[in-house]
Amino acid sequence: xxxxxxxxxxxxKEKKRLKKREDKIKKKNARKAEAAENPQGIQFAYVDYNxxxxxxxxxPEDKIKVEADNIVLGVPKKEEGEAEDPVREGKVSxxxxxxxxxxxxxxxxxxxxxxxxxxxxxxxxxxxKVSFELEKGAKGLNAVRVKKI
Length: 149
Fold this sequence. Notes:
Number of strands: 7
InterPro entries: CSD, CSP_DNA-bd, NA-bd_OB-fold
Protein name: DNA-binding protein
Oligomer: single chain
Structural class: alpha+beta
CATH architecture of one domain: Beta Barrel
Strand content: 25-35%
Number of helices: 1
Strand order of the largest sheet: 3-4-5-7-6
Pfam families: CSD (PF00313)
Keywords: DNA-binding
GO molecular function: DNA binding
Distance between the termini: 108 Å
CATH superfamily of one domain: Nucleic acid-binding proteins
Order of helices and strands: HEEEEEEE
Shape: elongated
């Protein structure tokens, strides 16, 4: 007598597959019945002018017309009238004269800028008030033409 080709494990998997298929059909029929009861159809969510989700559509009269030419992508270019003063003021937070570098904190925006001894006009020490200009360096902005105030 030959052995059955179907094992217990195969039977269980087949039962699970059939049950899953039946559940799927039941859910589908339930959704159809609910749609028949509620004739409104698909519910929509709209976004109002404040960014909140609402169930009422927006008023088309409140629509604002935007010209494509007025949309600025990126940083707007500086106009000639907006020239900044290149000389800034700050305070020396750290300076090591033996190594020849230090850091200056800008009084306007509290940014820290690297300062090298080659960019000094006067000798400086910690906590000195100084005026300086910014120059782009290898790792960011550097303070150059540093003078004591």
